[in-house]
């Protein structure tokens, strides 16, 4: 399955007369908001690196990913606000940080290469100008990871 991830900025309109805010957004395979795709969990997992320390958290995780790749670490766990990222050479497993495994948030996995590509793309996006015109599109490597 070919997966294309798009990073961009969108206006977040707030209520009660507060000004709109330019915020990070992502889409998978150009699907409209609300359309489901398994890789939305990976997109959601990137929200676990919140501002103002997004770059630092992504950089630290990329270091750990490299250590897992070369065998210095057998696994690494990043505890995000939404998901816990269980990272091994075979896969990256996303489990909801509050609810664990449940029907609304089933456990989902991707390959380490897909996770790393998404992190590298997100890191590159963070270095781009914060503008409504800014966008970055990346293609994730092919592959399938089993969660069992």
Q: What are its keywords?
A:
148 residues; alpha+beta; four-stranded antiparallel β-sheet; 29% strand
Provide the fold topology:
Blueprint: E1 3-12, E2 21-28, H1 40-46, H2 54-70, E3 75-79, E4 83-88, E5 92-96, E6 108-110, H3 112-126, E7 135-140
Antiparallel strand pairs: 1-2, 1-7, 3-4, 4-5, 5-6
Structure description:
This protein is an alpha+beta fold and 148 residues long. The protein is 26% helix and 29% strand. It has 3 helices and 7 strands; from the N terminus they run ββααββββαβ. It has helices at 40-46, 54-70, 112-126, and strands spanning 3-12, 21-28, 75-79, 83-88, 92-96, 108-110, 135-140. It has a 4-stranded antiparallel sheet. Strands 2-1-7 form a 3-stranded antiparallel sheet, covered by helices on one side. A hairpin with a 3-residue loop joins strand 3 and strand 4 (83-88). Helix 2 (54-70) packs antiparallel against helix 3. The longest helix is centred in the middle third of the chain and has 17 residues, at 54-70. The radius of gyration is 16 Å and the shape is globular. The protein starts with a strand and ends in an 8-residue tail after the last strand. The relative contact order is 0.20.
Short description:
This protein is α+β, with helices and mostly antiparallel strands and 148 residues long.
